[in-house]
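Give me structure tokens for this 418-residue protein.
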Amino acid sequence: MASKDIICGLDIGSDNVRLAVGQKIGEEGEKLHIIGASETEADGITKGVITSIEDAISSITACIEKAERMTGLQIDSAWVGISGSHIISQESRGVIAVSKANGEISSDDVERVIEAARTVATPPNYEILHVIPKSFIVDGQGGIKDPIGMTGIRLEVDTQIIQGLSSQTKNLTKSVYRTGIEIEDVVLAILATSEAVLSNRQKELGVIVANIGGSTTSLVVFEEGDVMHTANIPIGSEHITSDIAIGLRISIDAAEKIKLEYGSAQPKEISKRDEIDVGELNGTESTFISRKYIAEIIEARVEEIFEKVDAELKKIDRDGKLPAGIVLTGAGAKLTGLDEVAKRKLRLPASIGYPLGVTSAVEKINDPAFVTAVGLVLWGSQLSEQQSSGIMGQLMSGLKSFNKVGTKFKNILRSIKK
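Here you go.
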């Protein structure tokens, strides 16, 4: 089995580290089959940020070893997702004069205009993760997706620049390199998530993807096929668990069990007589609590999350105006009734996102929690296809190659003993 046919996606979250292993199948390698998936509890990571490198390395290593045992393959490289409140995005425009005397736009011109858009004022200690070309303008004529071969004098591009804090990016890459894994590239996790759950039609119509993780909720908004907005809300499913623990005066572990087994975000659907024995789950004397009361606690926090999502949509004047609605992913999306609260609070269609465009015999893959890891595999697969199809594929991917970390830095990290 050729190693180039194997693509791995590593999703490093606050609660869990997840790894999906994909293999290109078919004569041209046009299909993607997920042959392995593993997850381990995450240590040393809080709100998407590395807080202890040694603990993070242990968690990542354990996840990789699980996947290697499952697939019988040695994992050498991975596409790594990055998220957290330090990620910022802004718009930028690049302008150049077309180089050829006859005015024909070449791939070199496209590369130069995207490079011109990169020269945006970056905040101190931040580095550019992605430059995503949205549309090109040739001699004032806008809305052009691919200008190569067209004729003009002046070429412009509107881009979305996504930046991350340099120290956090380096801490993440250091943690992965020290497990002995090569990094193919660092990808904004929510962008990879959207690759796995959205169709091109949804992106054209206008859609928002919300990934509800342990301690954060990441968002990306698409319209006319382009990224319009990205954001990170510092509330996740852990906050729901904490609310239950405080409201019922029980341990966090018991609260998590109650949330997963009996939790719902729709108290109206639950009878007042429906009770559960909290003492049995908490290891104390029997105490019966109404499930409706638990659902009210959950609903209050879920409503707060969607109010903050709506506030982000208001910033770009898209509240209640996205025809393809909201697609919910992440471990938090498994909560019963979550999509109904989303419909009510956002005034939009809502659905739970599952991976599209992949086949798998691994049951874990049909889980909203694994969407980001699968999305990273899809991202890597699409990018390798685009790169083999020439320079335009590389440019239109909007991905900044992470090779700019420099081989010297990589070699130093690899020389450090695990």
